[in-house]
Amino acid sequence: xxxxxxxxxxxxxxxxxxxxxxxxxxxxxxxxxxxxxxxxxxxxxxxxxxxxxxxxxxxxxxxxxxxxxxxxxxxxxxxxxxxxxxxxxxxxxxxxxxxxxxxxxxxxxxxxxxxxxxxxxxxxxxxxxxxxxxxxxxxxxxxxxxxxxxxxxxxxxxxxxxxxxxxxxxxxxxxxxxxxxxxxxxxxxxxxxxxxxxxxxxxxxxxxxxxxxxxxxxxxxxxxxxxxxxxxxxxxxxxxxxxxxxxxxxxxxxxxxxxxxxxxxxxxxxxxxxxxxxxxxxxx
Length: 284
Known about the structure:
Largest sheet: 12 strands, mixed
Keywords: Transferase
Protein name: Acetyltransferase
Pfam families: Acetyltransf_1, DUF4081
Organism: Serinicoccus chungangensis
CATH architecture of the largest domain: 3-Layer(aba) Sandwich
InterPro entries: Acyl_CoA_acyltransferase (IPR016181), DUF4081 (IPR025289), GNAT_dom (IPR000182), UCP21603_acetyltransf (IPR016794)
CATH class of the largest domain: Alpha Beta
Helix content: 25-40%
Structural class: alpha+beta
């Protein structure tokens, strides 16, 4: 059956400053799945005239959809997605992906596809991996050389971040002027949310805490320098990231990974992470 845009868009409205608490409460119903949106809400304070967060409210049901470069549904039933889709469809000019819990993303995409056209790729099965125990306490060795990147190392981290993005998404994060991308990389470094291992002035390993909220930190941008792959770097380095994050940032660490990335899945399992959900991503 073709899923269509819902007609009940009157139950959807743009959320603003006065809705921050309400929106975070919706995210808190599943903080691991919803940490990305919760972190964006905290960062932005929902200050602005039109979105980018939309809320669905009817019959005691509340759901959200973040609509910026990433479109991310939160706690949305099929009925809520039908209503939200009527608003989301207008945001095509800004969107480069739809991601989040697989059931919600694939339902929403089924409603948007005929309006937005064919995607570059649909990744339907991305295990969500989570850990709350310290790796050191469950016998997993840590790489002692993994540490937060320093502010003066932004230009050292930048090519590693760009290489990881290009490998993962299939195109570079910027063309020409790197100013905006460098600012984003520097922001993570300044927060202490980029962890690295550096050897002889070169990044060997990198990982970012891309979203932190509601007691959860979501790891992204995990990358091992190609010259160091296959040498046992990844698992101890990732264990060090989890250890540092639980001790200093948030008590729950999570990430999501492509099901076809067998080496990464094996690394995360070796560290002690377990699957707690499934995401999907539509690349536009």
